[in-house]
Predict the 3D structure of the following.
Amino acid sequence: MKASLKWLKDYSDIKLAPKELARKLTMAGVEVKDLQITGSTWNNIVVGKVIALNPHPNADRLKLATVNLGPQQITVVCGAPNISHGQKVPFASVGAQLIDGHTGKPILLKPAEIRGVLSEGMVCSEKELGISDSHEGIMVLPPEAPLGMPLRDYLGDVIFDLDITPNRPDCLSIIGIAREIASLTEQPLHLPELGYEETEALIDSFVKVDIIDPSLCSRYCASLIMGVRVTSSPGWLQQRLSSYGMRPINNVVDVTNYVMLEYGQPLHAFDYHKLEGKQIIVRRAKNGETITTLDGIERVLSPDTLVIADKEKAVAIAGIMGGSDTEVADKTTSILLESANFNQAIIRQGCRCLNLQSEASIRFDKGLNPDLPLLPLKRATQLLLELAGGKAARGIVDVYPGKLEPKGILLSAEEVERLSGLKVPLAKIFKVLKSLGFECQHADSASQILVVTSYWRSDIRCTADLVEEVVRIIGYDKVPVTRLSSPLPKQEPRLSLRAQRSNLKQRLRNILTGCGFQEILTYSLTSLERLQKLSPKFELKIPPLRIANPMTKEQEYLRTTLCPGLLTTLAHNQRIEEKSIRLFEIGKIFLPQGNELPQEKEMLCAALSGPKAELSWHGNKEKLNFFDAKGVVENLLNQLGLEATFGVSDDESLSPRRAANIIIDSDKVGIVGNLHPRVAQAFELSDAVYLIEMDIDRLLSKTIKVKQYQPIPRFPSITRDIALVIDKQVSYQQVEDVIRSFPLVKKVTLFDFYRGEQIPEGKKSFAIRIVYQSPEHTLTDEEVDIIQKQMLDRLHQELGATLRS
Amino acid sequence: MLKQLKELRREALSELNQVNELRELNSWRVHHLGKKSKLTQILRSLATLPLEERKKVGAQANEIKRALESGLVEKKKFLEEIHLATSLEREGLDVTLPGRPVPIGRLHPIPQVLEEICDVFKNMGFQVFEGPDVEWDYYNFEALNIPQWHPARDMFATLWVDPEMDKESRLLRTHTSPMQIRLMEKKRPPIRAIMPGRVYRYEATDVTHESMLYQVEGLAIDKDITLADLKGTLFEFSRCLFGEERKVRFRCDYFPFVEPGVEVAIECSACHGTGCRLCGYSGWIEILGAGMTHPDVLKRGDIDPEIYSGFAFGMGVERIAMLRYGIDDIRLFYRNDLRFLKQF
Ligand SMILES: [Zn+2]
């Protein structure tokens, strides 16, 4: 909303500097985004009158214009096609600061010889004055512009650009803002005085109004003016519309726009003679009904749109835009002026269906007060009679099926203090609310007042609303600064599932960064293609939830796994610099559950790829491999006090026989493995990639056990190393399981793994260190010998293992 | 004999003086203090001397032996020091050679800032709660005084899972405020909670707009909680995060689910309040929206607004991170370029 300071001054006495005024408005909730000061650089520019035009002796297209500046006359060269005798024009003398019409840069006006004629000054275009980009001709001022007056005094203004919140449609008006200013600066508000002459004939004999559904139109007011003359508006009116950024059209349309800007109530003028049956019907549009709107577009309507119709057809889209059939044109002589209140939802719906917005609709869709239409209608009728002549029919049509009894709200100083912490005497509250135009009375109880909202406000419904009014006018900066003094809520026990879960996530992040992994965060939304890429067959394991109105194809589906985001990020960074890359993300995946909200499951996903270490003189150009990934998993679980076994995984995103399920207490908590080459290819990854994926909740279920202390062993241990030769098909896990099944085995470490020359074809060798320890006594070599003998026998019987000689 | 001893002492000490290596020191020891040394022989032959002379010579010889032994210890210590120094010198490194690289992992800047924000409030007794990203229209809008066709819906460009129909439509939450209702449904006052999480916007991205953001929602409900408490809490927050000197502005604003409503801005660090491009020439940078919980919202949470009052606030984490680190393009956060992420 743009508001001119000059215009605002019609209604309130403004003494504050514009900047301070802007600050006060902003603090009170009416945010001033920008302040444009026009005319602050206009020196040596005055209002002049063209009193003579003569041809230039040396140029056909140029003229010599003699301009009366009041005390003096001056003749200058002018090339503008639109200059004519008797015009009032902005005249700049030598020394004036202007904008160059061609380059757009500031210039200082100097005397110039143009085709042999000395010119000391110039008649200016809007562009040269910095008002607009218009440079086709000179700017023509209204005839009433006072001769010789400095242009700064005549046209200079401050335009406030305001950001009006959706609850304050009343501030989409000059009076609304003036009222705010008056209240904030404790000045009176001056409203226009209304009154005009009416004819004998009653309006009811000329027009009949029917509202089909009062819930969509709670009030419809109209006045009728006959014998008008449609012309262009006077300069002052055009100027005011321009200050808001609106183009003047003709005196009738301009008056409706002017009053809308003044009061915030949209109005519409119909050419009365074009209304069939002299009837106004407010109804939903019929399915497929058409109307050509003022912008010349033919629109097909549906019942989601409210229309104003005459006996035959729709003549306007209610609250959004008029129809061209009943448009006010030059030949129009009688005007039916509409000032109504429409339901905000139907207006929004209509705008959405038609993809159309207007100055009227942005006000109606905020919900205007149905008590508002009457005064603006009277104001517009009065102005129309003044500017377009004619006579007003007696009375006003006022169909008001939605009238509600005004409801008072009780307010006390205690309530203001209870919510705001600000002590305000009741008398002051009374005064502030009065200044905003609310009706206040002392209630039955001496500590309360009864407040009735004013007709222009639709946002005041409860005491909290009134408290805000009181506090914002007194000033949010007057609110004291206090600390919460209410008792603390019960704190979350450290062992609760919620606390443990956030603790686990925190620990996982610390452990992984400690292992050299960079944390990333990727979008929750992804593309179908990316999800499909995870499968070598391009199939989806879980159909993802789709967004009904995606912004892009890239962000159309809710992710069902973190992998695509991670792999895309990996590929992106591989392209930038070939390096050892380790990434992880902890985040939600979304698993559809029919029409319910999806299951939001937290996952951990990590990827590693490239050389083990950055390039350095220490060597080690080895690439990261499966066991680096598995080592990270083991380290991570170890730090959480967990121990896992690893079984072969058949996850299709991973290479067969190069992937393992991570199993804790026979539950799968995740996977680790080598990304399938087809998948790597699909994501355009340039190196072997290893992936780790874990389910946070499953992990949590394993970690929530409270740790119990184990006594430090009191008796010494005995260490034995064995080297086994065993069939290639036997997994290490099988060997270790056998060894661990024996009593007193405390620790088993594989310290060498060999395949090659000294071992028979089809065999491999494990070197294993076994530590034996008893909690009860010092072990003897003999005891260990017996156990180990039995162990080797079983390894031989069950797995075919022999001791390597 | 005494003369001979004197000579022996002079000779031995002068030779010791010449010794420069530990190996030589050993042969010196054998030569002068060993079993076959002259001194040992003299000491052995003492018994053959007459008593008077034995005393004199014995005392003298023992004195020389002690002198030589202590000379030996001293010399040995001296030579060992030299030896150590030489070998340390020999084993010296070019300490300017780069060390062995250890892989470095860092946290993403957003969770880091998020944690800082949460820590400030945790210290004020707030507890952390999380909720779903995919929400019902009811929690995201309806229960927060934004029914369908309400003009405030314009404030939230929404990504819908189901078409926008009624309160049972599913959507990606546009703010963390639905957690206010979810929390009130479960907890009774006193409540002091912060609720961080992802929020989503139907929005084309540019340097200041992202389709996904992190927010932190705050809620405090009890008897006698006031706007002044909100002001104090948020000023304290700003002091902790942005420092004592940074000016804070607490102004009236509108959000449908609070009344009175508040916007908090901090003084622009680039222009110190005089106005520049960064702050849109206002001198202030908005960091959060807040207000007193609307009585209708309290009622929906089955909390009596005549007895209880509360405040709520919500802030964007990216915005605060951008202010903190001087980041001028919001899209950098989720592009996950390592050249960006490694700076935090
Ligand atoms: Zn600035």
